[in-house]
Amino acid sequence: MSTQIPKQTEESSETEAETDVASKGDERRAEKRRRAAEERARRQAEEAEKAAADEDTIELKVFRYDPEVEGKQEPRFDTFHVPFTKGMTVLDALMYSRDNYDSSLTFRHSCRQAVCGSDAMFVNGGQKLACKTQIVDLEEPIRVEPLPHAEVEKDLVVDMEHFYDQMEAVEPYFQTDEYPDGELEEQRQTRENREKVKMSTRCIWCGACMSSCNIAAGDNEYLGPAAINKAYRFAMDEREGEEMKQKRLEIIEQEHGVWRCQTQFSCTEVCPKDIPLTEHIQELKREAVKNNLKFW
């Protein structure tokens, strides 16, 4: 009996020692993680201070608003100092600010090649694609805001549902009256007709033209320059036929169609794809007039 008691005590002591070692190990690892986090925060703060002091930086003032977070429901502007690099765009500067200063900064972007149309914003008082706009072409501080005349969802993101509804209203897809006789035969288009509609096909649905239009701002039912341009693209395509062209003209010549345009050229000026929107609208006005002329 006497020989078993010391053995039990020894085993208990070993267990307590192991627990103590494990506990101290956890404490050391937690302390190591804490110091690493503090070091990262210190380096980020130093980088931010260095960027602010560095002459080769740009000052970015970004619109902020978040209706779901208390304390951020009042619109404001946050300032970011971003290190400048050759070829930097507004989108590059926004992404740097998000990745290095504030991960909650919200904006849309996708292709970064001025094709998707998702990053249209209001930069220094004008509608622009952030991925296409060069920092060197702008005066500082660079002020970045969401597109005007649209409901802001968060920061630089606006609700595009109404814009898409207007685009869909003109049935923006190819519809033909007749098909070629041969099963594998193409629907041919003359070079002249292709040149006529070529510019209108460049629309990337960014909404910049709609945002710049004073008529669209005051008339929520106005189709808008983008939708009318899309109607032009198909109405002027010789492959659709007269019956479908007639239907499109009936859509665009209604009260809230082409006749609401006051020829201000604001849509043409801001279009990132250089589409002559105002010219297309005026040509559709002429087509609508000819369509209603009757000689008898």
Sheet with most strands: 5 strands, mixed
Point out poorly predicted stretches. 1-8
Bulk shape = elongated
Order of helices and strands: HEEHEEEEEHHHHHHHH
The H-level CATH homologous superfamily of the largest domain, spelled out, is Alpha-helical ferredoxin
User: How many angstroms separate the termini?
Assistant: 129 Å
Give the tags.
single chain; 296 residues; alpha+beta; Ubiquitin-like (UB roll); Fumarate Reductase Iron-sulfur Protein, Chain B, domain 2; five-stranded mixed beta sheet; two-stranded antiparallel sheet; 7 strands; disordered N terminus
Kindly describe this structure.
- Helix content is 44%, strand content 11%.
- It has 2 domains: 101 residues, Beta-grasp domain (Ubiquitin-like (UB roll)); 133 residues, Orthogonal Bundle (Fumarate Reductase Iron-sulfur Protein, Chain B, domain 2).
- The strands form 2 sheets. It has a 5-stranded mixed β-sheet. The chain has a two-stranded antiparallel sheet with strand order 6-7.
- It has 296 residues and is α+β, with helices and mostly antiparallel strands.
- The protein contains 10 helices and 7 strands.
Tell me the layout of helices and strands.
Blueprint: H1 4-53, E1 57-64, E2 76-83, H2 90-100, E3 120-123, E4 126-129, E5 142-145, E6 152-154, E7 157-158, H3 161-169, H4 191-198, H5 208-212, H6 214-218, H7 225-235, H8 242-252, H9 266-270, H10 277-292
Parallel strand pairs: 1-5
Antiparallel strand pairs: 1-2, 3-4, 3-5, 6-7
